[in-house]
Amino acid sequence: MHHLLIQGGLGTGKTLMMSILAHYLKEQAMKQGINVELFSNYDLKESTTMLDYTDWYKVAEADTSIICWDEAQVVFNNRAWSKFGQGIATEVAMYTRKLRSIQIYATPNVGNVDSRIRDIIEVVVTMRKDNKGYHLYFTDFQTKEFLKKAFIPEWQAKRIYKLSLYDTYSFVRGFPLPANERQANEFWEKLDRIHRKKMGISTGGILIE
């Protein structure tokens, strides 16, 4: 699973669940000896904030990474991207799989996200909140098959609140992309070079170390 989206109405705990899931996946991976770096477009605890397209180089350098995108309906909206950026946004999102990077998105409704992003989403988690706690329903977005459900009781959620996993009042940032062809050419060249070095992939018969 490389692209997961969390949807739900206002106050249903989308950002909270995304933050919990990111830290949980990191913790589980670390127990197996896998180093995971967190990135986000909001103030997520122990994460690097994605501010500029050059921050993708840090993603490429990481052994494995998780990137959390809050307010995805705004961030992944082609009207918010430059005309040039629209053409490479999906390419960047698709390339994250090669970088061993998991993308987690949060939005009120998956239908509000750009269609090119919807095409690569694998699992959708629908959130519902009541007086007892948070209900999560997992669905395979491509096949529409219901996968499972989970529940986090309110008392447990209150304990998690105290961990201050993220800043509720921070502004979200956009999806950083090169603004023109020159930047894009340099971007792809450097991103590929960093990735190959990390993986020890040979280029032209020479092993990059």
TrEMBL record:
Keywords (A to Z) from UniProt: Plasmid
InterPro entries registered for this protein in UniProt: P-loop_NTPase, Zot_N
Domain of life: Bacteria
Pfam families: Zot
Keyword Coiled coil on entry: no
Record domain Zona occludens toxin N-terminal: where: 43-138
Protein name: LP1G.16
Species: Lysinibacillus sphaericus
